[in-house]
Amino acid sequence: MSTDPHHRLNPLSYVVLALVGDGGAGAHDLVQMTRQGGPVYWGGAPSRLYSEPKRLAALGYLTTTTEPGRTHPRTVYRLTTLGREALQRWLATPAHFPRIKNEAHLRLLAGDLLTDKQILDSFRGMLPELDELEAVVEAMYTQADRVPARTRYLRLSHAYARKLVHLHREWIADIEAELARPAQGR
What we know:
It is a single chain. This protein is mainly alpha-helical. Helix content is about 60%, strand content about 10%. The chain contains eight helices and three strands. The protein has helices at about 10-20, 25-40, 50-60, 80-90, 105-110, 115-125, 125-145, 150-180, and strands at about 25, 60-65, 75-80. A three-stranded antiparallel sheet has the order 1-3-2. A hairpin with a 6-residue loop joins strand 2 and strand 3. Helix 1 crosses helix 3 (about 50-60), helix 2 (about 25-40) crosses helix 7 (about 125-145) and helix 7 packs antiparallel against helix 8. The longest helix is centred in the last third of the chain and has 30 residues, at about 150-180. The radius of gyration is 21 Å and the shape is elongated. The protein starts with 10 loop residues before the first helix and ends in a 6-residue tail after the last helix. About 15% of the residues are buried.
């Protein structure tokens, strides 16, 4: 195993380092940030957002300070030089196509095990969630100016999320149109 400490970093590590950024953040702040954008950008257990910053601090990527909180003191994490350099190095590498865990796709992959009506009902069941995601994305887009150093980049990211929600609406419409036609060879 390499002695390079960067091998101890995983995708969640980079999410935490990026969210901590220059302004610092407490674990609860990290949970709130990912809860807001998580359904579109990142999935995972919120509990990991409490343990990962502690792990990164122990490895020297983050420092901790105690600051007053609403009800009790809170730990605020900040990037160290090591953390900033690791994040910058990773961010400068080529981006890969996003990892996708697409449960909806499974309805089509195993479509021969369902009726077309079951498939349509399942996909139409996604529409209320898309409405909610659309509202979340619009809120994130309009609130992007709350982080002046990142506004430009957040808006570009949220424009992607808008398109992703729209793409799913188009996908549902395509499925509805295709499954309205008689099946060939079934």
